Amino acid sequence: MTLVTTTEMFKKAYEGGYAIGAFNVNNMEIVQGITEAAREEKAPLILQVSAGARKYAKHVYLVKLVEAALEDTGLPIALHLDHGADFEVCKSCIDGGFSSVMIDGSHFPYEENISLTKKVVEYAHGKGCVVEGELGQLAGVEDDVNVEQHSYTDPGQVQDFVEQTGVDSLAIAIGTSHGAYKFKPGQKPQLRFDILDDVAKRLPGFPIVLHGSSSVIPEFVEKVNKYGGDMPNAVGIPEDMLRQAARGAVCKINIDSDLRLAMTAAVREHFALHPADFDPRQYLTPARDAIREMVKRKIVNVLGCANKA
Ligand code: G3H
Ligand code: 13P
Ligand code: ZN
After folding, report:
1. pTM of the model
2. CB 207 within 8 A of CB 168
3. Which residue has a Cα nearest atom 5 of ligand 1?
4. Which of 10, 19, 27, 232 could serve as a FRET partner for 309 with CA atoms 20 to 30 Å apart?
5. 82 noted as active-site residue
6. How many CA atoms lie within 13 A of 4 on its CB side?
7. Average pLDDT of the segment spanning 36-46
8. Atom of ligand 2 at shortest distance to CA of 24?
9. 93 lines ligand 1 (CB under 6 A)
């Protein structure tokens, strides 16, 4: 079994009214928890790696872990670079075995975003790799940069952007945001479905991506806080809104914070109940189990991609 690109996955997802989960991976337990869930639910999968993950675990370890997951599960899995900052990091991942990269030029002026994205697309397509671009900017924390306000995607630009760059999928900003604090206390969670609908009309059949789409599952936040954590006001995107997006043009939904929370809640609980433990296998086993159960819930409740592998 070899890595797949997202082309076939997205085509089927678009037509079938579901989305593929793109989960951030940083170590073996995270890879195993996610892939066990996908195997049990027979779901296609995108495993994605950020610059921070490559710095933490090293490129080669992450690629080998994903190769092991492919061999172990036989599932269709794409390996994707999350938030590629420049041409060099995209090239390094394309040359280093990834099947998909994101070039995140969303913070550059429009024309600069186009020329950078186009350069990555030309290189990637020559090597059989697909590319995700981004238009509009999410609020929230990303790579130590804190963006205060959403810059919602302008639907008037999407067709021109896709035509000029040749990207295979497009991330848009409709009110999701990175991290565990997506709405202010008292603020009603909402997304700009009007923008999503407008984008979908202008790009019929074209796969749209949502970043910042963790639900910041309340049970995990409660558990973290119960066992000595301090995450007041952590709140995410309601599951029904994500499901609605997945039924339409959204084919890829990015999830990282929910993995972090699931793991942290399990580890905190473990130490509260077993304060004398010092064997990492003892606390990483419940952490991996928590990831598996959480990802299964996403596949069924949010993504709708069970039995689509
Ligand atoms: O969108 C960002 C992802 O959550 C990755 O986060 O850069 O801390 O690995 P990271
Ligand atoms: P969350 O912080 O909502 O999990 O978003 C992750 C993401 O968008 C990774 O690119
Ligand atoms: Zn993101």
Report:
1. 0.97
2. yes
3. 50
4. 27
5. yes
6. 15
7. 98
8. 9
9. no
